[in-house]
Amino acid sequence: MKFISWHDASGRLREGEVGVVPTDTIYGIVGSAFKPDTVERIYELRKRERDNPLIVLIGSWDDLDRFPVTVPERTRELLGRVWPGAVSVIIAVTGPGAEYIHRGKGSIAFRMPAKPELRELLQSSGPLVAPSANLAGETPSATPQEAFEYFGDEVFYVDGGELKNPPSALVDARTDPMRVLRPAPGFKLQ
Predict the structure, then answer these.
(1) Which candidate, 167, 128, 176, places its Cα nearest to that of 31?
(2) 84: confidence class by pLDDT, cuts 50, 70, 90
(3) Are 42 and 29 in contact (CB under 8 A)?
């Protein structure tokens, strides 16, 4: 297994390649959120159910404007408190054009990570779909070596050492009041 740099990963992702990178929590298998073929490739590699949407990582607030979503003020207030960080927020889709991401669910989960290298990557590559780096139903990868056992030479790898962090909190911002669907240590909605 050969590792590449964050800089090299950015160029490859813009070209539509798929890679494994360290996130704020664990390793994710990532690809451009704006390339439907890349998104489908990740579903194939992970053997993931086609109706199960993928999370989207963004590098800046402006990235939200690139998706057909409307972010209510109360949701913006929450995001202003918890981003960047390990909090994923489900936002309703309000227009056409992202069906290959939301898979008919009418919503997309976004996260703006805190890891500086990952944020820089996202600002260069653009938003990325980023499920955990494992086959559907299997244990998420804590190291690139574990991810390699799942994906081999089908993807590239960025090394970030061993990651043993809890999953991100997951908040449904479509409801009023918003609901925590997956709690995380230290995260509070209010």
Answers:
(1) 128
(2) very high
(3) yes
The two three-digit tokens of residue 89, written as one number:
């927020």
Rounded CA gap, 90 and 22, in Å? 22
Contact 88, 159 (CB under 8 A): no
Collapsed DSSP state (helix, strand, coil) of residue 27:
strand
79/169 Cα distance (integer angstroms):
12
This prediction's pTM: 0.95
Query: Is there a contact between 154 and 147 (Cβ–Cβ < 8 Å)?
Result: no
Kind and range of the H or E run holding 151: helix 144-151
Q: Where are the beta strands (DSSP E) in the chain?
A: 19-22, 27-32, 56-57, 87-92, 107-111, 128-129, 156-157, 169-172, 179-182
Q: What is the mean pLDDT of residues 157-166?
A: 94
CA distance 129 to 52: 12
pLDDT of 167 above 90: no
Residues in contact with 178: Cβ distance below 8 Å, sequence separation at least 6, in sequence order: 74, 75, 78, 171, 172, 189
pLDDT one-digit tens code per residue, 101-145: 999 999 999 999 999 999 999 999 999 999 999 999 999 999 999
Domains along the chain?
A: 6-182 (3.90.870.10)
DSSP β-ladder status, 169-172 and 87-92: parallel
